[in-house]
Amino acid sequence: MVLKKIAIYGKGGIGKSTTVSNMAAAFDGLTFVIGCDPKADTTRTLVGERIPTILDTMRENRNCSLEDIEFDGYNNTHCVESGGPEPGVGCAGRGVIVAMQLLDKLGAFDDDPDVVMYDVLGDVVCGGFSVPLRDEYADEVYIVTSGEYMSLYAANNIAKGIEKLNGKLGGVICNCRNVDREVEIVTEFAQRISSRVIGVVPRSDLVQKSEYQAKTVIESFPESQQADIYRKLICDIMENDDISTPKPMGVEEFEDFFFSYV
Ligand code: ADP
Ligand code: MG
After folding, report:
1. Residue 242's pLDDT band (cuts 50, 70, 90)
2. 29-46 pLDDT, tens per residue?
């Protein structure tokens, strides 16, 4: 039985894939990791290299099988990447729709993973990028943000998308960029949208070091504090039952909130 299906949303470049891949590497059980970002690099540090995306594979073979798109990664992870259209052609989110339909059709979920993790680009929660939010896919969403304006702005928009679709938010993950009063800002942000901070991930150069080896921090530096932080984060998420529909801020409230810190 699947224990949890979680979706991680956040602005591009904020640290979603790093967080997802490290949590998947830290979790003891079968984890199904689904990259839903045209960047298609969620699973690189789990598998050790970039894997072919579902969209690219389908372009060559419309009748591809599960073995063509699903790859085994570190510590009992099954990895897929939705991929995206060629730049300038078509809508990025459509890749997610096509990928999800194919995964359903091929019975990708029949292996009975313990956890399913979606890594979703959330600058806009439209079309395809909202698919993992729908009931049959993720049970709960986590938003990754730093204390920076653009990342919080995107996080508030994601909260709007979740509210619209009647989705459930499990909490906010603060991935630090070392701005002043960062944890304070993100904590207040989470409260203002009727949620809470479920984890604070410090900035660490072990993230880059392990990334250069195409590995997670968990695999490259298992004894490090950073590895412990990802282990604790996935434990806290697995135990979390405090989930609810967020209440996003209006434009003015958001500006007032943010600029009271600068
Ligand atoms: P996203 O998936 O949201 O686009 P990534 O996970 O790919 O973002 O992270 C973007 C960049 O930030 C990567 O180069 C990654 O190494 C770096 N990064 C992410 N989290 C941390 C962290 N906690 N400490 C240091 N660098 C980080
Ligand atoms: Mg990513």
Report:
1. very high
2. 999 999 998 899 999 999
Taking the C-alpha atoms of residue 201 and residue 194, their distance in angstroms, rounded to an integer, is: 21
> Could you tell me if 98 and 91 are in contact, meaning their C-beta atoms sit under 8 angstroms apart?
no
Mean pLDDT calculated for residue range 79-103:
83
By alpha-carbon position, which residue is closest to atom 18 of ligand 1? 15
Region for residue 8 given its phi and psi (left: phi exceeds 0; alpha: psi -120 to 50; beta: otherwise): beta
Domain boundaries, the chain: 4-259
Least confident segment among 94-98, 115-119, 131-135, 245-249: 131-135
Query: Exposure string (b/e) for 13-29, b if CB count within 10 Å is 16 or more?
Result: ebbbbbbbbbbbbbbee
Assigned CATH topology for domain 4-259: Rossmann fold (3.40.50)
> Whole-angstrom Cα distance, residue 189 to residue 175?
14
Q: Are 7 and 116 in contact (CB under 8 A)?
A: no
Closest C-alpha to ligand 1, atom 16: 208
CA–CA separation, 142 vs 235, rounded Å? 14
> How far is ligand 1, taken at its centre, from the CA of residue 47, in Å?
17
Among the bound ligands, the one closest to the CA of 145: 1
218-228 average pLDDT score: 98
Query: How far is ligand 1, taken at its centre, from the CA of residue 41, in Å?
Result: 11
Q: What's the CA-to-centroid distance between 56 and ligand 1, angstroms?
A: 25
Give the pLDDT band (50/70/90) at residue 97. Answer: confident
